Amino acid sequence: MTPMNTRFFQPHPCAALIPLLILSVFLAMGHRCLSADEKRKDPQPYLTLTGTDSRVRERGCFLIRSEAEWIKTWQRHKASKESPDYDLFHNPLGLPAVDFGQCMIVAVFQGAKMNNAGLQAVSLVEEKERVVLRFENKTYQTAQAARLTIPAEGVLTVGAKDEAVYGFFVIPKTGKAVVVEEGVRQLLTEPLKFKERASFPPRVDPD
């Protein structure tokens, strides 16, 4: 039974603010959204943008509340020089349009990961004092292979694929605390165990 102080997010007009045209651009750029057979019954973010080609190689989790923060994060993601004077009209980096009056973005960078096809939202639940976003890694297994030493390049594991995984989760704007939990497991046959990845304090925007 769902606790009295817990409710699921309902569809919001913000979802319509991200044009279908932008989604087609995502796909053309090598990004992907979840297909129909990957959708969960649990409440979900408005949009999940994920891939394996981020230029950000360090692990990190950020809550983006403004267009300025979004531009800065996207420039890092694309390995472009950070500049507050980004040309939104010509939009050379293909920055997705988001209405930050209605939405926020949880940005997750996994750094260099082996055998990971991206991230997938598991649920998005609003509780009395916080919002909890849960996600998991879309991992896959490869046969164990020999390790080869390459001069000046370190060790290469043959058969495993080194990816720079990222996920951008568009969620409703809220002043409550936001908690991000990551589902982890050693084997694909094991159940997910969720661990806190990041926590962001409550915030009330000035009028």
How are the SSEs ordered, and which strands pair?
Blueprint: E1 7-8, H1 20-28, E2 47-51, E3 59-64, H2 67-77, E4 103-114, E5 116-126, E6 130-139, E7 147-150, E8 154-157, E9 162-172, E10 177-184, E11 193-200
Parallel strand pairs: 6-10
Antiparallel strand pairs: 1-5, 2-9, 3-4, 4-9, 5-6, 7-8, 10-11
Give structural notes.
The chain has 207 residues and is mostly beta strands. It has one domain (7-83, 93-200). 10% of the residues lie in helices and 39% in strands. The chain has a five-stranded mixed sheet, with no helix packed on it. Strands 2-9-4-3 form a four-stranded antiparallel sheet, with helices on one face. It has a two-stranded antiparallel sheet with strand order 7-8. It is globular.
Shape: globular
Radius of gyration: 18 Å
Largest sheet features: 5 strands, mixed
Helix content: under 10%
Oligomer: single chain
How many H/I helices? 2
- Structural class, by secondary structure, is mainly beta
Strand order of the largest sheet: 1-5-6-10-11
Number of domains: 1
How many beta-strand elements?
11
N→C terminal distance = 37 Å
* Topology pattern, helix = H, strand = E: EHEEHEEEEEEEE
Strand content: 35-45%
Low-confidence runs of at least 5 consecutive residues? 15-30, 34-38, 145-159
| Mean pLDDT figure | 79
Key structural traits:
about 210 residues, mainly beta, five-stranded mixed sheet, four-stranded antiparallel sheet, 2 helices, 11 strands, about 10% helix
